[in-house]
Design a protein that fits this description.
Number of strands: 15
Shape: elongated
Length: 360
């Protein structure tokens, strides 16, 4: 411990400072070390320069002397230093004593915290990269080219929220000329649901290659395939599937737990394709899903969508507002979907996914 006439101390103060686990020094306005506590001398030894230009054992002078900066500005000053692979945080506070200003310098070894921070940042970078890959993969499998069928127009909209989700849609012409379309939602957010959308698209497309396949058979086959994945029982998939005969407008549909009822709008009314059903999961037995039929008349439009639209499936007035937009023929195709998302996708709590089929 050092001392001079401008700096006095009593035994109690010294004893208290020596018990502090952080390294403590008192510096004057000439960078002179007036005092160093036990933690400091234990780390750097009793023999240290009385005129401080650098942390003991450092090879270079400090670029910024926190103590001198603190004395000059009479305000707290902080900096960090890397000394032979160890990181130190230096906090200096001004002390006024007998018309002079000194710096009380507290030096903390933060090497372990820095190492942990670097590991966390590295892990976060890897996770961010993985999420970006998953998101790009999810976006890449969404069909950019929808079916081109005489007398019909197909449009789709997918607005991802910040979290990586599991929404999925698809529409394509089957080998027998019918159009297969579906909307799906994998439970949860993150990499797992996003990766399951890849599985879902491939599996659904494979199932629909079979001659004479029906929505209910596709859902049954999906249940069997899903069980073979042996993933966590908390994960499930909801799917609403529909097969349309473009020649007649007749369609058949089945539902695997999709809670948002598709809508058909035409003339002055909107009707729902309500049909209960269990989701694709590992906590129910594979059962035959019910199947219903209907007809999409000329001038009508069919909307399949997920629960990303704000309050549409829980608030009657909001649902009525959506129906009014579907009945309004001033907007069609992507223009209509953009208007719907602009009005009903303000919260961005979930992905917004819509698939629109309009019969001319």
């Amino acid at each position: 411990m050092q001392n001079n006439k401008a700096f006095s101390h009593d035994s109690f103060s010294v004893a208290a400072l020596n018990e502090i686990p952080d390294m403590v020094r008192v510096i004057d306005n000439q960078a002179g070390v007036l005092y160093a506590n036990t933690a400091f001398t234990r780390r750097f030894g009793e023999e240290y320069d009385l005129s401080c230009k650098r942390i003991p054992s450092a090879t270079d002078d400090c670029a910024l002397c926190a103590a001198l900066e603190c004395i000059a500005s009479k305000s707290q000053t902080s900096t960090t230093l890397n000394v032979r692979g160890r990181m130190y945080e230096i906090n200096a506070s001004p002390i006024s004593f007998e018309q002079n200003t000194y710096a009380l310098e507290i030096i903390t070894d933060i090497t372990q915290e820095y190492s942990m921070r670097d590991k966390l940042m590295s892990a976060n970078d890897r996770m961010t990269s993985d999420l970006e890959v998953a998101r790009n993969l999810q976006l890449s499998i969404l069909r950019n080219t929808l079916p081109k069928v005489d007398g019909y127009k197909f449009s789709a909209e997918f607005l991802p929220c910040e979290a990586l989700g599991g929404d999925m849609y698809d529409a394509f012409v089957m080998r027998d000329g019918r159009v297969f379309m579906y909307i799906a939602d994998v439970s949860g957010h993150g990499v797992m649901p996003a990766m399951l959308t890849v599985y879902l698209r491939q599996e659904m497309f494979t199932q629909c290659k079979k001659p004479g396949i029906s929505p209910t058979k596709v859902l049954s086959n999906m249940q069997t395939s899903f069980e073979e994945l042996h993933i966590d029982k908390s994960i499930y998939i909801t799917i609403f599937a529909l097969v349309l005969d473009p020649q007649t407008g007749e369609f058949i549909y089945a539902n695997a737990g999709h809670s948002v009822t598709p809508l058909i709008a035409g003339g002055s009314k909107v009707r729902e394709l309500f049909l209960p059903g269990n989701p694709i999961c590992r906590w129910t037995r594979n059962e035959t899903h019910a199947q219903e039929s209907g007809t999409l008349q000329e001038g009508e439009r069919l909307l399949l969508y997920t629960d990303g639209l704000d309050d549409v499936h829980v608030d009657k007035s909001v649902a009525e507002s959506l129906c009014e937009m579907l009945l309004d023929k001033s907007k069609k195709g992507t223009q209509l979907l953009s208007a719907i998302s602009e009005k009903f996708a303000q919260k961005k709590e979930d992905d917004v996914t819509m698939l629109l089929c309009e019969r001319k």
